[in-house]
Amino acid sequence: MPVGDDQRxxxxxxxxxxxxxxxxxxxxxxxxxxRSAFAGFDMDKVAAFGDSxxxxxxxxxxxxxxxxxxxxxxxxxxxxxxxxxxxxHASELLLAV
Length: 97
What we know:
Helix content is 68%, strand content 0%. By secondary structure, it is mainly alpha-helical. It has one domain (23-96): Hypothetical protein, domain 2 (Endonuclease III, domain 1, Orthogonal Bundle). Helix 1 packs parallel to helix 7 (86-96) and helix 6 (67-80) packs antiparallel against helix 7 (86-96).
């Protein structure tokens, strides 16, 4: 079923990025930890993440940790925060990596 809600779509895009090279089962088992770590996938909140948040994410054993991915999700949010169509800009960035 298509997703029309920006927040749910952002979650799916982020999880897809973290899934790269791993099984979906691994990612789905960590889904709640990802939601907690990424402020419920609220784009505005994640866009406001700073260096200390990225360091926190890199130390969070409950999620898949990779500096490039964590920083990238933050950049996705900054590109689309406050814009109803921003999630599409973020998905274009994801495909460009």
